């Protein structure tokens, strides 16, 4: 049946919502969270249940469409031409089992809901920094969290998933029943099936302690070196992020932050105070502000200032093997160049710890990389994309000599593929698994073009 007629026919028996381009609500529904990416799917579906998902699979098979599962679209990457965009918001169950240290969530649940449910329990989730990213999108893409040195990637903590396969069967899969499927789900996104729920390990952390140190930017060289040196002795219970912010001198910004620079070190321990370890960093520069003491993921999320509403954004990310003196100097020099003003923030995350020995077999892993860097360039609607794009190219070129062999999919940029996240053998295995689990190509290519 022609595509459009098949979708119109499905609208009548669809329990959730199925919007076509002629429907008034379609235009607002087609956008991803990252508004810099323009998507034009043939329809936007919000299935109410597994039967609705099965009906979508049926139409895809009949009409040659592909299904692109996108809980919210922080990781949106292409136009979705010829695809049905599938939102999982109705799959919103959340069950915390503290006896087993496990949370079970529907594929539409966002990390903020899990963080709130765990507040005060002595357990934390392997969540990323944004409360509005979905547990599914993050975990299926690898996922690097505040607690990754302690608990590994988000995908290492995926115990089991409920998967609707393209043959219409739906059930729980784990390492005993479907080791290949789980290996692919841990980091290669949804190219092997539609996940309806996930079972995730929690991290026991009764004594979460944090230090937030803001320095003069003039001391950046010594502070970044001190953080780099800390990696040698830091236990896996200590997680460290460094952030260099330079607000553009843009009239759109409030006067109090416009054109100003900050350098902040955030350390988070799952094992109580780590004052003596942080002290070397503290002494490396002139502290402008310090907050130290007990904290929690909810407090971190509240203080993180991550945007929660859909926002246009772009950036460049890279995992590095080492952060040597030459790279630190080159990066800081680059940061001061007037022509690099479009780069508003650079994040440097310390890797290592539990990331070095993944607990479960999965496509995503960062076993040998030492650092994960991300540069952020804001997008101001209506303004030209240059010189921002050129700054991101220069950022990548500067770091390229130290690039680690692989990164994680949640840090891929639009248009980048899973080839950057695994070896040639891993990619060949993924392609084989996709042919086995989705032989008729009903699922969107995602980050692995066919
Ligand atoms: C402000 C911000 C902060 C961020 N912080 C972090 C961070 O700290 N750590 C980190 O690792 N990442 C971070 N990210 C990146 C983010 O984790 C990824 O972009 C993630 O993929 C987005 O999740 P989403 O819910 O928007 O998923 P989407 O972008 O909507 O989906 C991503 C992909 O996941 C797959 N998928 C999702 N759900 C299903 C399903 N149910 N079945 C099958 N396949 C599915 C699909 O292949 C889909 O294309 C951040 C992004 C932003 C914008």
Structure description:
The chain has 450 residues and is α+β, with helices and mostly antiparallel strands. The chain has three domains: 3-86, Uridine Diphospho-n-acetylenolpyruvylglucosamine Reductase, domain 2 (2-Layer Sandwich), CATH 3.30.43; 94-204 and 423-437, Uridine Diphospho-n-acetylenolpyruvylglucosamine Reductase, domain 3, CATH 3.30.465; 209-411, Vanillyl-alcohol Oxidase, Chain A, domain 3. It is built from 13 helices and 18 strands. The protein has helices at 3-13, 26-29, 50-63, 111-118, 135-139, 148-151, 179-185, 220-233, 275-282, 297-303, 325-336, 388-399, 424-437, and strands at residues 17-19, 43-46, 66-69, 83-86, 94-97, 102-106, 123-124, 158-164, 170-174, 194-201, 203-204, 209-215, 238-246, 261-269, 287-294, 313-320, 345-350, 371-378. The strands form four sheets. Strands 15-12-14-13-17-18-16 form a seven-stranded antiparallel beta sheet. Helix 1 (3-13) runs antiparallel to helix 3 (50-63), helix 8 packs antiparallel against helix 9 and helix 8 (220-233) runs antiparallel to helix 11. It is globular, with a radius of gyration of 22 Å. The two termini are 25 Å apart. The model has no long low-confidence stretch (mean pLDDT 94). The structure holds flavin-adenine dinucleotide. Flavin-adenine dinucleotide is lined by residues 33, 69-76, 88, 107, 128-130, 133-134, 136-138, 140-141, 143-144, 189-190, 194-195, 306-307, 410, 446.
């Amino acid at each position: 049946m022609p595509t459009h007629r098949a979708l119109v026919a499905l609208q009548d028996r669809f329990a959730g919502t199925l919007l076509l381009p002629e429907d008034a609500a379609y235009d607002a529904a087609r956008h991803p969270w990252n508004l810099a990416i323009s998507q034009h799917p043939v329809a936007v579906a919000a299935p109410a249940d597994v039967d609705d998902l099965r009906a979508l699979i049926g139409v895809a098979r009949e009409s040659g469409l592909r299904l692109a599962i996108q809980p919210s679209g922080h990781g949106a990457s292409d136009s979705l031409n010829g695809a049905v965009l599938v939102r999982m918001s109705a799959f919103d169950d959340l069950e915390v089992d503290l006896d087993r240290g496990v949370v079970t969530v529907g594929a539409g649940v966002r990390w903020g809901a899990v963080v709130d449910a765990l507040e005060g329990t002595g357990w934390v989730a392997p969540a990323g920094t944004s409360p509005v990213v979905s547990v599914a999108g993050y975990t299926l893409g690898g996922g690097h969290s505040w607690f990754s040195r302690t608990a590994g990637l988000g995908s290492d903590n995926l115990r089991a998933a409920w998967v609707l396969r393209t043959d219409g069967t739906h059930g729980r899969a784990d390492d005993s029943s479907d080791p290949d499927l789980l290996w692919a789900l841990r980091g290669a996104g949804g190219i092997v099936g539609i996940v309806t729920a996930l079972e995730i390990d929690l991290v026991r952390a009764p004594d979460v302690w944090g230090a937030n140190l803001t320095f003069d930017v003039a001391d950046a060289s010594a502070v970044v070196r001190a953080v780099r040196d800390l990696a040698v002795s830091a236990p896996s219970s200590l997680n460290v992020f460094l952030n260099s912010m330079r607000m553009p001198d843009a009239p759109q910004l409030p006067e109090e932050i416009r054109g100003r620079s900050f350098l902040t070190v955030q350390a988070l321990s799952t094992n109580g105070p780590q004052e003596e370890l942080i002290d070397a960093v503290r002494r490396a520069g002139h502290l402008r502000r310090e907050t130290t003491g007990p904290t929690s993921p909810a407090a971190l999320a509240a203080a993180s200032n991550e945007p929660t509403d859909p926002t246009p954004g772009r950036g460049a990310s890279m995992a590095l093997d080492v952060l040597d003196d030459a790279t630190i100097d080159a990066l800081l020099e680059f940061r001061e160049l007037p022509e690099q003003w479009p780069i508003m923030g650079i994040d440097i995350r310390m890797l290592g710890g539990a990331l070095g020995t993944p607990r479960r077999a999965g496509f995503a892993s960062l076993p040998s990389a030492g650092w994960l860097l991300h540069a952020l360039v804001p997008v101001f609607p209506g303004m030209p994309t240059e010189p921002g794009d050129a700054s991101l190219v220069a950022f990548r070129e500067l770091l390229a000599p130290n690039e680690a062999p692989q990164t994680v999919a949640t840090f891929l940029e639009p248009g980048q593929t899973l080839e950057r996240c695994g070896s040639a053998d891993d990619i060949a295995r993924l392609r084989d698994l996709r042919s086995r689990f989705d032989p008729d190509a009903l699922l969107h290519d995602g980050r692995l073009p066919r």
